[in-house]
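User: Quick sanity check before I run a bigger batch. Here is a single chain. Can you write out its predicted 3D structure?
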Amino acid sequence: MAGLNQVPSGNRVHIGFFGKRNAGKSSVVNAVTGQNLAIVSETKGTTTDPVQKAMELLPIGPVVIIDTPGIDDEGELGVLRVKRTYQALNKTDVAILVVDAQIGLAAEDRALVQQFKNKQIPYIVVYNKIDLAKESSFVFESQEENKIAVSALTKEHIYELKEMIGHLAKKEKPIFPIVEDLIERGDIVVLVIPIDAAAPKGRLILPQQQTIREILESGASAVVCQPSELAHTLNSMSKKPALVITDSQAFGEVSKITPKDIMLTSFSILFARHKGNLERAVRGAVMIEQLNDGDTVLISEGCTHHRQCGDIGTEKLPAWIRNYTKKDLKFVFTSGIEFPDDVTMYPLIVHCGGCMLNEKEMKYRQQCAADQQTAITNYGIMIAYIHGILKRSLEVFPNIAKYLNEE
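Assistant: Done. Predicted structure follows.
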């Protein structure tokens, strides 16, 4: 599995390049990365949508570079492009504002800097084209703390800019790992992974890969089986496993097979803790009890994929929720970057585990819901709640289980 040897996009530092048209964003991107990553043209508005590229960037390491459309774009399409640019802030760990040194900060630049501050995004103001501005009375904007003058054309001060980015991009280890603090060296962990029509051909999905990797790094052993093989797998083991982790879709079946003296949880629960807010997700699941006829539930995925018959997000979850509540509910579905700014019309959001989103965007979506007093949970936690096994699945996190209203 090649994916085990690669850093997932969601775990990379996301570096966003912003600025007005023709400030030289794409030229600075190319200079910093040492590649022709972005199209460069004298024509305004060459970059029409945020462009992402995963790569290695010294001295930082694995990153995602985001080149965005100009924040001064015009016309009907321009308004949509600017909106996409501002949406890119929700997943940006370090922001680079590129300014034409011959012009200085414009109103649009200052508005963007204010957004960096509001969203607590570390940022650098890069005054580009100093090779053209040296003969002018070019000076820094005094109110900006993190600033540097560069020339994307001559590469002047590009090295210093990379060092500044590297300093801001230093990230501490996540407060919560996936599983390493729940197991000890020498433990056995059983992972239950269905291989059905919805499973990707020839590979495991990202949360499964990452969990296996962390188990191995912890000095424990990972035993992987399908739900139909779980009973045989457990009976054939001479040592009781420390933990069983299941795909959410198999929760009900796996719960019946797994003895009560073996801890049981799911990939979704582990990733809710790892990347977001497990307590908030558990509180959100309980809100299913408050749904009424006519309510609309938003089901949101962080990635895009081809929908198949029996798709968990668009078919299985709505059916399970309707069957549990016995209510006449409506459902709205979003995927990828389509998470709405206004969620006030939804009493409940059920989100995927967010394995393709970085921590910043996942927390933004959760905070967006909280700010608008909308409950939010994730697929696995909702499935476990509906099947009456969430309390058992949270035994590994006793401080969180107390928020349940289950009997």
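The radius of gyration is 24 Å.

User: Great, the batch can go ahead then.
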